[in-house]
């Protein structure tokens, strides 16, 4: 008897939760004009991507040094000191 009540109540509440999910999924999206009226600044994604690409192209990506981090059983202070000594020698 308890199982039947559990199944019946479970299906009822599952239906309620699903209806909430579908109701909010059908929400209206803001247009750029509506966003400006609300005071939200919009940014052109293509322009931002192009700016970032130009910054990356300016950097020298071929000249870098691989620095190994300390292992959990190693002391980070001594590892940092050793790496500083190695980089000073080069």
Automatic annotation (TrEMBL):
Membrane topology annotation: Single-pass membrane protein
Keyword Chloroplast included in the entry's annotation: no
Protein name listed in UniProt: Cytochrome c oxidase assembly protein COX16 homolog, mitochondrial
Region Disordered, annotated ranges: 67-90
GO annotation (BP), single: mitochondrial respiratory chain complex IV assembly
Region forming the signal peptide: none
Record-linked PANTHER family: CYTOCHROME C OXIDASE ASSEMBLY PROTEIN COX16 HOMOLOG, MITOCHONDRIAL, MITOCHONDRIAL OUTER MEMBRANE PROTEIN 25
């Amino acid at each position: 008897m308890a199982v039947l009540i559990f199944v019946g109540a479970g299906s009822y509440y599952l239906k309620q939760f699903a209806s909430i999910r579908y109701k909010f999924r059908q929400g209206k999206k803001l247009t750029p004009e509506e966003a400006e009226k609300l005071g939200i600044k919009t940014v052109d994604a293509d322009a931002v991507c192009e700016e970032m690409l130009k910054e990356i192209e300016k950097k020298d990506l071929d000249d870098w040094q691989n620095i190994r981090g300390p292992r959990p059983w190693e002391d980070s202070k001594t590892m940092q000191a050793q790496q500083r000594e190695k980089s000073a020698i080069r």
